[in-house]
């Protein structure tokens, strides 16, 4: 395999020789293993190794990006020449460009993202996948599984630029997943569970993943449409992160600069109830989305996006920050074949004092959502509409499973009614406890 740091340096050298005024490059080396079983038989076994890289060249206020996976010197030379030719023909963008040398990170923390243990043997992953499937099928009511899998991966990333930045890090990820089917014929229902961690030793018992998937599928048997009307809606901790994700998406500096965000005029205004924060921490040890520097080589830092219910900041890369007349927040995210954009790392919503069960009891009558589908939120207006399934709540207890429901309403207004439980799962990149929102309309029967 190729050393990503050496490859990034070669790309920059080729770009400058081809006539670029400045450039940045990203190189990745990746290894993945995955095994899945179904019906007691091996369904799929995969192993892959790859080297991929991307180059951005800048000439004045023009830029172009190219990517490839063939690291031969002749290919790098041709790629750089092509990128320079493309940049010369590109339209001018007065806000593009590398950060100044005084902005780049000069040091960063070790976030313990790479498991030093040897990769698992495919046979060991297969054994785990079979354990997961056996646990799912042992749940009463489960008739079969769609797929049960175990996986492992490692990636090394290196980023370098002609402004003097050069840095990289490695990370690993191990995971289990299960999808179970309960019932027979037209009455079948399916559900799933998964777990993913940086270190294999931090994973839960694989049996628990299979069992949970089976129990969730069996609990959905006999689902029907809910009543229609305005009801409180509880978003289970499995789906509540999507609500937080809509907020994070709306504070994307690129959207703000375009004037196309439903939070455009809300900086410094209340968007959540008192006491609630949305917090980003890129330096969580072994965190699912941790990173020591961003996609432009700037230092990452913890920040409260929402503090005590008030929106405090946008998330910006250098380009969006220049358009807004502000400074980057260290939230650049870099792909291989495109310029940096805006991204986030580990996002957390404050928890409440209630247990999930207490939140259900307190709700009285309403809908508990455990899965969703559909478009989500209008990025400009904040109007919300999703297909949903879950459970109907009557007298503070789960009454029956629900499917074919639609939830709709103005998300900005609903967020001001938010009540949270305490069941947050911090293993997710965007983590939130079960939350209840008022002011949404449920459409069912």
What does this structure look like?
The chain has 445 residues and is of the alpha+beta class. The chain has three domains: 4-218, PmbA/TldD superfamily (PmbA/TldD fold, 2-Layer Sandwich), CATH 3.30.2290; 222-242 and 350-443, no CATH class; 266-344, no CATH class. 22% of the residues lie in helices and 36% in strands. The protein is built from nine helices and 21 strands. The protein has helices at residues 4-18, 73-89, 122-137, 206-219, 240-250, 253-258, 318-324, 356-363, 411-415, and strands at 22-38, 41-59, 62-68, 142-161, 166-182, 189-197, 229-230, 233-235, 278-280, 303-307, 310-311, 332-333, 341-342, 347-349, 366-377, 383-394, 397-410, 419-420, 430-431, 435-437, 441-443. The protein has an eight-stranded mixed beta sheet with strand order 7-21-17-16-15-8-20-18. The protein has a six-stranded antiparallel beta sheet with strand order 3-2-1-4-5-6. It has a five-stranded mixed beta sheet with strand order 11-10-9-14-19, with helices on one face. Helix 1 (4-18) crosses helix 2 (73-89) and helix 3 (122-137) packs parallel to helix 4. The radius of gyration is 24 Å and the shape is globular. The model has no long low-confidence stretch (mean pLDDT 96).
